[in-house]
Design a protein that fits this description.
Elements lengths: L1 H35 L5 H12 L2 H11 L3 H24 L3 H21 L10 H21 L16 H7 L23 H29 L1 H8 L52 E6 L6 E4 H5 L4 E8 L10 E10 H7 L13 E6 L4 E5 H4 L6 E6 L2 E2 L9 E3 L13 E7 L22 E6 L5 E2 L2 E10 L5 E8 L4 E3 L1 E2 L9 E9 L2 E11 L22 E6 L1
Parallel strand pairs: 1-10, 12-19
Antiparallel strand pairs: 1-2, 3-4, 4-7, 5-6, 5-10, 7-8, 7-9, 11-13, 13-17, 14-15, 14-18, 16-17, 18-19
Length: 554
């Protein structure tokens, strides 16, 4: 029984050594990344590589299931996996000290490879966080396991001395002996458990690692101070073309209905950036070039602000939004007309003989989005936005500059942290999402959503307001209808329409009778097309179908 307890104790201490070594590796990597580039940290590069290689259906499931916490779930999953592997390496190192420690280095090589594979890799220096972290973790594991000691060795027996193996076994003194990296018998007893030495080494390692991690976070924060200061210094000029006033009747005063203008902090965020880029507006530049560009251009942020700015209320929608989902929001955007910039560069739309039919927008983190040139230049208010709801763009939403194109899903139009626009063709280049199974072209589909009552709500009998929002950007909403169970479609009251590029609130006074009921809504766009009842997935070009909720009355 004592042998079992001792074995379990050593195994637990070895696993703890592995966990502490993993913690050391991550802390050292974070400190190194703060000196090299925060985006080069191993969790970030491995997470980015995982995102890039995840099938579109699984990505869509993650967004649908975890919402805007999908990146946090991924990072926690990576950390949990690192912890499990570190604990197993620690237990392995108890018998194979050098090989187990070398295993930590192997993970560093994996992280370095992931860093070099990233499309936004800045060079060979990106491998340093993973390699330095792995070296620190390997050293910590080697030293800590050495304090735990190896398995108890079987005492050596002289040729002429009596040996009572049965007594030895029953007394519980025999064990499999090992050396540092072999399974054969050792020449003598293996190192003993050094409690004081282990606790001292573990304490020093934990404190040093915590200090390194804290210093790394502090240095990373300081790296972003220039970007933060540049954003704080922005003084937004008055628009040359201000947005029309929002009609007084555009916002219904019904509890539970989405606000007409979505506050910045509540605006949805769906992207692949595990680390939000913090770009210094003072050093930012935009380049416009490519097929059909007779006059390539480059602009600074200050130069964009000096141009005539347009201000518009525009509703954006993510293609990953399920029927009735939350990934839609409306804001007042301020920016530079994108079609004006393209014309100044000599670009013509395909309908007028232009050579390019696709605009590739590249972000500072190397994301690529493809937008039809025809739609950008057809007269709609496509813009390079510099402000959102009266303030410079939040970092999470693309500061200093992002694209906004009304009527198209975000994955083909809403490039955040944009740094480059290249004119090309759909036949010659597939951007990020198209390579992963999404459609090349993706106009927003007509949708209506019930905001109140909520699904499975229990409500009193009597007149109940059923209300929500509907959208069909660049076409507008002409009519909204509600169906109770299998009854006839009944027309809802529409709030005033601000523009065809914004969503429209609606309401319906329902005389609710006791029992369970299903409420369904459909919209008709400005072209007279009724929202389809055909239910489809978000892949490849957005979900379709009609939103419904089940409620209980009484």
């Amino acid at each position: 029984m004592s042998i079992n307890r001792r074995t379990v104790q050593r195994g637990a201490l070895a696993a703890a050594s592995g966990l502490l070594a993993g913690y050391t590796a991550l802390a050292a990597a974070e400190l190194t990344a703060s000196l090299v580039r925060p985006q080069a940290g191993p969790v970030t590069v491995i997470g980015g590589a995982a995102i890039d290689r995840t099938p579109a259906a699984l990505k869509d499931f993650a967004i649908r299931t975890f919402g805007e916490n999908d990146k946090l779930v991924l990072q926690l999953g990576i950390l949990a996996t690192v912890g499990l592997l570190a604990a197993l390496l620690g237990m392995f190192a108890l018998r194979h000290r050098r090989t187990g420690s070398a295993g930590v280095l192997a993970f560093g090589v994996l992280g370095a490879a992931a860093a070099l594979s990233r499309p936004d890799a800045a060079g060979a220096a990106d491998v340093l966080p993973s390699l330095v972290g792995a070296a620190a973790g390997a050293l910590a594991l080697y030293l800590l396991v050495g304090k735990v000691g190896g398995p108890a060795a079987r005492p050596a027996v002289a040729d002429d001395s009596p040996a009572d193996t049965s007594a030895e076994t029953s007394a519980g003194t025999s064990a499999v002996a090992s050396t540092d990296d072999s399974t054969g018998p050792s020449a003598g007893p293996s190192p003993a458990w050094n409690r004081r030495g282990f606790l001292l080494a573990a304490g020093i390692t934990a404190v040093a690692s915590t200090g390194a991690g804290a210093l790394g976070r502090a240095l990373t924060g300081r790296r972003g101070q220039g970007a933060t200061a540049s954003r704080a210094a922005v003084r937004l000029p008055a628009p040359a073309s201000p947005a029309p006033p929002i009609p007084a009747g555009a916002a219904l005063r019904i509890p539970g209905v989405s606000a007409f203008t979505t506050p910045n902090k509540e605006f949805y965020r769906v992207d692949t950036a595990l680390v939000v880029p913090k770009v210094d507006a003072d050093t930012w530049r935009l380049r416009i070039h490519g097929k059909g560009v007779s006059r390539p251009r480059s602009y600074s942020f200050a130069e964009l602000l000096q141009r005539p700015l347009i201000e518009r209320d525009i509703t954006l929608t993510c293609v990953s939004n399920e029927v009735g989902g939350p990934y839609a929001g409306s804001a007042r955007w301020l920016g530079v007309s994108l079609s004006d910039l393209l014309r100044e560069a000599g670009v013509r739309p395909p309908s007028r003989g232009g050579r390019a039919d696709q605009l590739i927008a590249r972000s500072v983190d190397a994301m690529t989005l493809g937008t039809p040139v025809e739609e950008v230049m057809d007269g709609r208010d496509a813009m390079l936005a510099v402000a959102m709801n009266g303030e410079p763009l939040p970092f999470e939403h693309g500061f200093p500059v992002r694209m906004v194109v009304p009527g198209l899903y975000g994955y083909v139009s809403a490039c955040k942290w944009i740094r480059e626009i290249e004119l090309t063709t759909f036949d010659s280049y597939d951007p990020y999402w198209v390579k992963r199974g999404w459609a090349r072209r993706a106009p927003v589909k007509t949708q209506a959503r019930i905001d109140t009552p909520r699904p499975f709500a229990r409500i009193p009998a009597g007149t109940v307001p059923v209300a929500g929002v509907a959208w069909a950007q660049h076409r507008g909403i002409e009519r909204v209808e509600v169906q109770v169970d299998d009854g006839p479609w009944q027309e809802a009251s529409l709030a005033a329409q601000a523009t065809t590029d914004t969503w429209r609130q609606w309401s319906f006074d329902w005389k609710a009778a006791p029992g369970g009921h299903r409420l369904t809504v459909r919209a008709t766009d400005g072209r007279g097309e009724v929202q389809t009842e055909l239910r489809t997935r978000t892949i490849p070009d957005g979900a379709s179908g009609r939103h419904g909720v089940f409620v209980t009355v009484g």
